[in-house]
Each structure stands twice: as C-alpha cells, then as structure tokens.
Amino acid sequence: MMRIAWLANYPYLRLEPHLVMRRPMTGHPSSWVVNLANALGQRADIELHVVTLCPHITTEKRFAAEGALFHILPSGVPFSDRGFPWYLPLDVLSGFHWDRKHLVREIRTIHPNLVHAFGTEGPYALAAIDSGYPHLIHIQGILQECIRVEPSLRSRFAVLLEKRAIRNGKHFSCRTDFDSACVLSHNSHAEIVHIHEVIGPAFFKMKWTVQENDNVLFVGALKRRKGIEDLLEAVHLLAGQSRRVHLNVVGSGPTRYLAHLMDRCRQLGICDCVEFLGYRSSDEIAKLHEQSQVFVLPSHVENSPNSVAEAMVSGVPVIASKVGGIPSMIRHLDTGLLVEPQSPQELADAIDVLLSSATKRRQLSVNARNVARARHHPASIVVETIKAYTRISSLRKGDIRRMAAPAEEDRDSGRKG
C-alpha cells in the first residue's frame, strides 16, 4: 500500500463535526481537492493522509473521515483561534517559518512514500520541499499573475515565496499551458505532469437542454479579478438593446465588495435583472446549470477555473475571457466562446449571439460535454495521479535528498525568519 501525505487547504465546512469550531468558518470550497480525495479514498492501495492548517483551532486534531486520515494543525496567532491580520502578515514575512516546521514534523510522523502539496502561494509547497521526502507540487492559481489585478501587502511578499517554491521544486502537476509555462520560466529543469481536476458527480448527472429563457449564470468568488463588474455592464448594454437577461451570481466574497456590486446594479438600472445567490453547493450549482442557457466567466486572470470545467461537464454553453489557462480548456467557436477581458461590449455581443441561436447553443453544449467528460472523469484522473505518485516515489534515495534540499540561501533565510 502506498502512503500519501497531502498538504492542502481542505474546506473546514466538511470537517465541522470533528473540529468543533469556536467561530464561524469560512474558506474556499476547494471542490477539486475534495473530489480527488474522495476518488483516491476509495482505492485499497492508497492510504491517504490529509494535512491542513486551520487558524480557528488551538490544538492539533487527528481523525478518520471520508476515506482519509485527517491531520488538522493550528495556525495563525499562537494560543488564539484566529489568523494573522491583513495589516500584519507575520506568517508571510517570516517565510511561513512556524507553519513549515509544524508541517514537516507532521510529515515525518506520517512517514509517507510521497508528499503531494497543493498550491504555491502558501507554506505547503515549501514544507514539502523542506521535508526531504519525494514530493509533487500541484499548481493551482498563479499568485504572481493575480497580484497584477489585486495587489496587496500580503501578496507582495507571498509572491517571493511562491517563486522560491517553484525554483526549488522538482516535480509539478499542471493543468494548462499557462501554468506549465510559468513553472518553466522559473525552473527550466522542472518535471511536469499534466493532471486535470476531478469534477464532482453532480455535474456528470446533468443533461443540459436548450430552453426558451434568457437565464445567464456566473459562478466564482466575488473578487474584482473575476470581472463581475464587466458582466454587470454587459447586462446593462443588453438591456439597452431590448434583451433583458436574468443573471444569477453564485459565490461569496467580502461584504464591502458585495455592497459595491449591488450599488453598481442600482446605478446601471439592472437590479431586477441580477440576483446574488451567495454560496451554493455542487448539487445546487448543477441545478442552476440546468436552468441556464449561458454560463459566463469574464475573469481578468485565471489558470484553470473549476467553475468552467463544471459548466462544460454539465453541457451549459460557456463564454469566458481569453486569459491565462482558459484557452487550454476551451476551443473558440467549438467548445465555447472566448472574449477579450475587460470588454463589456464584446461580452454582451457574445451573450446575445448564443441567446439568439438555439442551434449554436446545442452545438457548443454537445462538443464541450464530450471533451470535458473525458478530460475530468475521476477514474482516468486517479489513474494518472497514481502513475505520477509511483514514478516519483521510486526515485533513488540519494536523488530524493538532492532534489528536496532547499538552496543554501533559502535555508539560511528560513532560519533567520
């Protein structure tokens, strides 16, 4: 049996009965992490340990659930149940020194065949490298790209750590041409495997059909980089062309930004055209796919958005920005429509084209569903993942040590932090 240690931001909401949180829990649903964990958890030849940091607990918690063994480690301000404030990101400024030490200690307790770290923007990738075990670093978003659209003090320092993780890592799991190129631009010797995200069963059950309605759907975090304001402007432009669509916005975000979006709807006179639905489960989103005629993601920066993959698996026609890794997912005019980012008029025109042609919607739906259901099927992705685990964990011991050891300057920097 192969023992695998995951370092991942597993969603707290799914672990609530075991964690007994003392404050409201928030966080990204990380559905791709949950879906792959569930698929691997069904394998008799895999012993899966999920290690995750949680700022809302003060003591370590270990338990078995959902086919895996969970190791939840406290993070953030010591002896409290909160993370570091945005204006004093000591965790980032220290190079995640304490979190990395805590994670490495837990990894060595597990003694895995391989460490699989999800994301380069936090401590997980660096801890996997520090541990000295064979490791695979899974590229999620690219922080150095996101910061161009949403700069922050924390992100400015975290980008330096992201680049360090990419430079010192050896094996990377990528999903698009965009993230692969980013890794190779910092580490020309990196070994890359292409493994797509697992999409949940709710979306494979959907059989989207053409209907006579003008329902448009957005699913994603309520952040500026998602281009939601461009979409609201597009809805306004469509109303001026006598096409009143109904836009459902699924996702959560900062209260202040949600209030700003609602104010923008009032300014544009489209309050009766837009409904903010907040967080929704996978089953609820799949149902909204079935009720919608167009799915839109007008992001300014993306790698491999899970929401687009889910929509394609369901079969709802997709319009998305031609940025980042999205062109690796969508073939323009074949499996979806690609538009330039920050172009409300082009976005409005694309929505109008699809809503005006049932034939075009049906064609895009069939093509996208055929491609996406093969690309994101759990069985094939599990096979590719285990193949990567087996190959990487079979490295000679000496090679592992040389591969895992951080550069001298990075080790010294960690000690000073």
Radius of gyration: 22 Å
Number of strands: 14
For the record, the CATH class of the largest domain is Alpha Beta
Portion in helices: 40-55%
CATH architecture of the largest domain: 3-Layer(aba) Sandwich
Query: In percent, how much strand structure appears in the residues?
Result: 15-25%
Main sheet properties: 8 strands, mixed
What is the average per-residue confidence, as pLDDT, rounded to a whole number?
90
What is the strand arrangement across the widest sheet?
3-4-2-1-5-6-7-8
Domain unit count: 2
User: What is the oligomeric state here?
Assistant: single chain
Give the N-terminus to C-terminus distance in angstroms.
Answer: 38 Å
What is the H level of CATH, i.e. the homologous superfamily of the largest domain?
Glycogen Phosphorylase B
CATH fold-level name of the largest domain: Rossmann fold
Helical run tally: 19
Question: Structural class, please?
Answer: alpha/beta
List unreliable stretches of 5+ residues.
396-417
What would you call the shape?
Answer: globular
Structural features, described:
An eight-stranded mixed β-sheet has the order 3-4-2-1-5-6-7-8, with helices on both faces. A six-stranded parallel β-sheet has the order 11-10-9-12-13-14, sandwiched between helices. The chain has 19 helices and 14 strands. The protein has helices at residues 16-19, 31-41, 90-93, 97-110, 124-131, 143-149, 153-168, 177-186, 201-204, 228-240, 255-268, 282-291, 306-314, 326-329, 344-355, 358-375, 378-393, 397-404, 408-416, and strands at residues 2-7, 46-54, 61-65, 68-74, 114-118, 135-138, 171-174, 191-194, 215-219, 246-250, 274-278, 294-297, 318-321, 337-339. Helices cover 46% and strands 17% of the residues. Helix 2 packs across helix 17 and helix 13 (306-314) packs across helix 16 (358-375). It is of the alpha/beta class and 417 residues long. The two termini are 38 Å apart. The longest helix has 18 residues, at 358-375. The protein folds into two domains: 2-198 and 378-416, Rossmann fold (3-Layer(aba) Sandwich); 201-375, Glycogen Phosphorylase B (Rossmann fold, 3-Layer(aba) Sandwich). Strand 9, helix 10 and strand 10 (246-250) form a beta-alpha-beta unit. Mean pLDDT is 90; it is low at 396-417.
